[in-house]
Specification:
Layout lengths: L5 E12 L2 E13 L4 E5 L6 H8 L7 E9 L2 E2 L5 H7 L4 E4 L3 H4 L6 H5 L1 H7 L3 H14 L5 H4 L9 H13 L5 E5 L7 H18 L2 E6 L2 H7 L2 E6 L2 E7 H6 L4 H8 L50 E3 L3 E3 L2 H4 L8
Parallel strand pairs: 3-8, 3-9, 6-7, 7-8
Antiparallel strand pairs: 1-2, 1-4, 4-5, 9-10, 10-12, 11-12
Length: 329
């Protein structure tokens, strides 16, 4: 295998509050190769977005208290703020979660889309606007010369998301982090945005981390998937293998909670019982054990490590690491 473009080792990000320490990211490790699309899935509050923000060093007021984020061999947790500003937006770009609030309402859309090349490549306003117009056209916005002069409130939600993608691509970054890029969009616009991300991956060779809670999006977009729960990776592997044979009860429960179109008989959905844990006061042992149908006595006592289970997958589960299968998976 070639050297990974991005390597995260045992990353830990915490928020210090009057109530206690929130362990938002608790020992996450991942690798991303050039041209690859990696899915990061889990319930709200599982740590997906904070992991991405930590890679970008935008996690404030949270603090990175341990681990490494290596990009092209450099540990981004150790570089200066000035060096990080050069990398952020030029080499690693991020599409933020809410397109309705990510754009500044008092600046024209084209001016904002062209901002990365003005800051990172020193281009003048006219040349930057030309790049913005070109990129808006590439992401499918009609009449880009006219729309570049419009303000964000004159764009629909789908068009704002396209503008955010255009902004992220103006410097042709090596890594693109897309945080819930289809949230709050109707299904037609969702399909167009996902098709756009596929084209970006093919045309620019950009490595992509796709953060979502939509397992259908992951199935159609990602070669590999990582499942997060309570700030940790609980399962990872090729998307096809993880979806066909989940090795962690949380992954199994996520897959059971979504409708199946390939079933002749449609049964009621089976939601995951209980609530995600309090990250200030995590339960002992495996954080998922209070909600788990397969738990054994050891699950409430010891925290499982992420270890190989089968030929291609990793899972942090005492049950499957012992060789047992998840019944009904």
């Amino acid at each position: 295998m070639p050297q990974p473009l991005l390597e995260v080792h045992d990353l830990k990000t915490q928020f210090f509050t009057p109530e206690g320490v929130v362990k938002a990211v608790d020992g996450v490790s991942l690798e991303l190769h050039a041209g690859e699309t990696l899915g990061l899935v889990g319930e709200s509050g599982s740590g997906k977005s904070v992991t991405a923000l930590s890679v970008m060093r935008l996690q404030r007021p949270g603090k990175i208290v341990g681990g490494e984020v290596r990009f092209k061999g450099r540990d981004l947790t150790k570089v200066s703020d000035a060096e990080m500003r050069e990398i952020r937006g030029q080499e690693i770009a991020m599409i933020f979660q809410d397109p309705m609030t990510s754009l500044n309402p008092v600046f024209r859309t084209g001016w904002q889309v062209g901002e990365p090349v003005r800051l990172h490549q020193g281009w003048d306003k006219a040349r930057a606007m030309g790049v913005a117009v070109s990129m808006l056209g590439k992401v499918g916005i009609p009449a880009p010369e006219k729309r570049a002069r419009d303000y964000p409130h004159q764009f629909s939600g789908g068009m704002r998301q396209r503008a955010m993608i255009a902004m992220g691509l103006t410097t042709t970054p090596k890594v693109l982090i897309a945080d819930e890029p289809t949230t709050a969009l109707d299904v037609t616009i969702q399909a167009q945005i996902l098709d756009l991300l596929r084209n970006v991956n093919r045309e620019f060779g950009t490595a992509t981390i796709l953060i979502t809670h939509n397992l259908g999006v992951v199935a159609g977009m990602c070669e590999r998937v990582m499942v997060m729960y309570a700030g940790r990776i609980v399962e990872s592997g090729p998307t096809v293998d993880v979806f066909a044979h989940p090795k962690h009860p949380y992954t199994w429960a996520l897959l059971r909670s979504i409708p199946r179109l390939d079933e002749e008989r449609h049964e009621p959905l089976k939601p995951i019982e209980g609530l995600p844990p309090d990250l200030i006061n995590l339960p002992s042992g495996c954080a998922f054990h209070p909600r788990c149908h397969f738990k054994v006595e050891r699950c409430s006592r010891d925290v499982p490590a992420l270890n190989p289970v089968g030929d291609t997958q990793l899972a942090a589960c005492w049950v499957t690491q012992s060789g047992a299968e998840l019944k009904g998976a």
